[in-house]
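pipeline stage [seq->struct] | target=LL-diaminopimelate aminotransferase | organism=Dehalobacterium formicoaceticum | residues=409
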Amino acid sequence: MAQMNENYLKLPGNYLFSEIARRVNEFKNNNPEANIIRLGIGDVTRPLPQAVVEAMKKAVDEMGQPETFRGYGPEQGYDFLLEKIVEHDFTSRGINISQDEVFVSDGAKSDTANFQELFGTGNILAVTDPVYPVYVDSNVMAGRTGFIKENNQFDKIVYLPCTEENGMKPSLPTGKIDMIYLCFPNNPTGMTLTKEELKKWVDYAREHKSIILFDAAYEAFIQEEGVPHSIFEIEGAREVAVEFRSFSKTAGFTGTRCAYTIVPKDVKVFDTKGEAHSLNPLWLRRQTTKFNGVSYPVQAGAAAVFSTEGQQQVKENITYYMENAKIILNGLKNAGYKVFGGTNAPYIWLKTPDNMGSWEFFDKLMHEANVVGTPGAGFGANGEGYFRLTAFGTRKNTEKAVERIITKM
Ligand code: PLP
């Protein structure tokens, strides 16, 4: 008789976005004529940049010719892409990252979920609350989180509340944490940290020999000067941080799939004897065993993101989405909503009116305004009473959704 991994039994209910899809489908079945606008799941609506499409077509043609056909590639990514990533995203910002510290993958979701495999199950982890649910659920599956309590929080996870009182910025933990998940610009709150604020985390991690798992999936949306794009802009971060990046939102790769993770060789974990081991070769070992690389045409497309035309086209898309963010932010502010984010991130985090529960607000918004967003409670206990809207819709739908929220809610 095959035994199950009972940690899966600890996972709370449906994955957030499956539950949203279930409610939307039920509503659509009962109201087939309703014109629903989706500003819920963080998927993009702009197509791939033309430079990416052309590079991918060329790569596919190469795959069809015996002289240029490629089979298995290097698990950690082709040199032509690694070079561009290092040069464009790090060297140009004065950050020292070498090519063998970059690991190309099929998504930041898989990387943020898989990376915990390198850590002992006895480690204490901290997450912000609210949080991107993948960090928590992947640790639950691994058996690192203890039992679930009545408030849907796990016994062994340290939750770092992001509330109105602290401006949606987590405070340093009081105890000793081994693994710290940070995501800035943040999903779901849309908030960022300054260099000084991020430095406090790096200093904490250096003092406690902890590791920061830094998710920078939204760095390309930063508009203001002085906001760090990478944790490696902070002195000492090379010793204590791993960074996750993605082409998904930056360049419309949500359906194409390409991302990368930076694992500096200086980051160390310790065995039970207290001996230090570099995380970089461990991640290489993990990836070469369990992953066979991203397809050549996709990596060729990702490399084209860094070409002059690619950069111009990506910038146009980001400007488009950030204009949507402004429309939502200003529209809701003028209507008297309390709103966060939306300046350096494609997410707007709003406080629900009259202390309404966030799932209650979800249902009301869907029924009365036919707009779908994401209930804050789905991101953690401190998300209750909040709601997330995304700037990834089309301009027309964004404008229509804001108008409906203002007039119908
Ligand atoms: N990290 C965060 C914070 C996200 O919000 C998302 C997607 O919504 C991801 C990672 C996943 O990105 P990818 O499409 O590269 O898997």
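stage status: PASS
auto-comment: Residues 308-334 form the longest helix (27 residues). The mean pLDDT is 96.
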